[in-house]
Amino acid sequence: MAYDFKKEFKELYKPSCKPSILTIPPMSYIAVRGKGDPNIEGGEYQGAMPLLYGVAYTVKMSKKGPHEIEGYFDFVVPPLEGFWWQDPADDQIDYARKGDSTLSPASACPISSLATISIGLSRRLPPKRSLTSQQSRC
Residues 82, 90: contact at Cβ < 8 Å? Predict the structure, then answer.
């Protein structure tokens, strides 16, 4: 049976309605970094989604290919997570300046050593989803 992050970490992916303090365990992520307004059509955020899921599903489906990833086990691709921030002027974040935001959409991945597999994966991604060193981060 495939490992399912949503079932294993219910408190993280389906939290209670009651406020509580959670301890987040160390996890590996596939992440893409970009800058700009996420609502701009054709912007970096929208361009990052196919790349992020392309890598996640390439890792998942690697079990059917000739390249064996060390430490791989079958998993359900988890929901999208995201990290957003601005370099605040005067210690204030201006939500109206979405274009000044740095974004890092991410997806948890059960492979503990993602850096070792990134080169092999980037060769398997479709040409439209090429990985640049600026975007990729393990």
Answer: no
The three-point CA angle 13-19-22 to 5° equals 55
Query: pLDDT per residue over 96-126, tens digit each?
Result: 888 888 888 889 888 765 554 554 555 555 5
Determine the 3-state secondary structure of 105 from DSSP: strand
- Number of C-beta neighbours around residue 110 at 10 A: 19
Task: Give me the residue label for tokens 């992520």.
Answer: 29
Task: Please tell me the total number of residues recorded for the chain in this structure.
Answer: 138
CA 30 to chain CA centroid, Å, is 4
pTM, entire model: 0.72
- Kindly provide the residue ranges of all beta strands, DSSP E only, lying in the chain, ordered along the sequence: 3-4, 29-32, 34-35, 75-76, 81-85, 102-108, 136-137
Question: Cα(51)–Cα(134) distance, rounded to whole angstroms?
Answer: 13
How far apart CA 102 and CA 32 sit, in angstroms, is 11
